[in-house]
Amino acid sequence: MLAALTLAGCSAGGGEQERNSGAAQTGTGPTGTGQAAAKTIPLTIRSENGEHRFQVETARTVEEQAQGLMYRTDLTPDGGMLFAPYPADGGPPREASFWMKNTPTPLDILYIRADGTIARIAENTAPFSEAQIPSGEPVAAVLELVGGRSAELGIAEGDRVTWPR
Question: Where is pLDDT greater, at 121 or 16?
Answer without folding.
Answer: 121
